[in-house]
Give the backbone structure.
Amino acid sequence: MRQLLLRPGAEELNYEIRGIVKKARQIEQLGYGITWENIGDPIQKSNRIPTWMKEIVADLVSQDYSYGYADSKGMLETRRFLADINNDKGGVNIGPEDILFFNGLGDAIAKLYQFLIPTARIIGPSPAYSTHSSAEAAHANTKPITYNLDPDNNWYPDMEDLYNKVKYNPSIVGILIINPDNPTGMVYPREVLERFVAIAREFNLLLIADEIYQNITYNGYESVSLSEVLGSDLPGISLKGISKEFPWPGSRCGWMEFYNKGVSREFKKLCATLENAKMIEVCSTMLPQLAIPKIMSHPEYFQYRKTANERIGKRSQLMADTLGKVKGIKFNKTKGAFYNTIIFEPQRLDAKQTLPVGDRRVKRLLDDWLLEEDMPHDKRFVYNLLASERICVVPVSSFCSDLRGFRVTLLEEDEEVFRDTFERLAKSITIYLNSSKSVALEAG
């Protein structure tokens, strides 16, 4: 080409959560079924949408007005409804003008980073949700800046690590919090969130909270929202949506809530720019916006969500019963969202480990995949697991982390299938971690 086409940070746009699918499809073409544990899609895992919810959507589809444009910022009635939900929590109060709709949170995240100057950095958690870390890196033309989540402390943030990185890097203008967290499944207690606020206040930073899983908690845990702890003197943005909660991932419907727009001139300009960008785009999808207040105010909604959370919590316990006793890994029982991230003890991994693969055709695929240069050890395990057991998980190294492990979901509704999947996974971990010894013996 006459000139370079890509800016340097564009190479950071990597989404292994879906990238692993290409490998799994190769095995599918050989006639095998795949157990999909790579992506948080409840519909893929046989989640049944209740009839009353379908009836609400069907009625809206029958109305001519649902086929038109929405207001550029989002339907006013829906924004009023969501503002009231936030204000009922007793923290930062907002009005409908403080809410802006997007075509899913992916769209919102991309827009947020798009308009920041490249030198303005948002520090986020590691392991990181790829959509955030990739977008932040792409806007900055370099690798993302992260603070560590600690698998030896319930996956809580390493606040000393965060504080020092903020203190000694003046380019950091904001902190990203994901609560409940993806990929770890942790829910942060109020005192942890208050520590985030204290750091932001000391260094005059913007706080951004991805709270799309806020209403998916279980086993006695509840999520505290950013608006409840932020106070009136700091700028904040909450990112929310319905793709996981209803669940309606195909709706592509998410929104931002702006807190304390007036406390910072720069923050007010950012909010206005995001709103103007949406006006140029015209609007976000109408139908799911119309459905939100009707579904969330339905008399059966609270019990529906309560029952769904209890089922996820039960599966969390089943997973703990199976994986919690496996040697060679660090396992934390989840509290929210529907993921778990399992970490290998570093000294237990090496490049000689393998899992048995009975089909020579699959073995040839695996051998080809493993030719990738500088492959992280956890990715080797993920490929071996896929070839051996046809279980598709995601390596932690793809979540912008120096830790080595993998992420799974708690979405499988069929308890027998769920139990079988994680029993096979537990057995595979043990075989894999011990395989380098047997390989050495065979070589000798």
The radius of gyration is 22 Å.
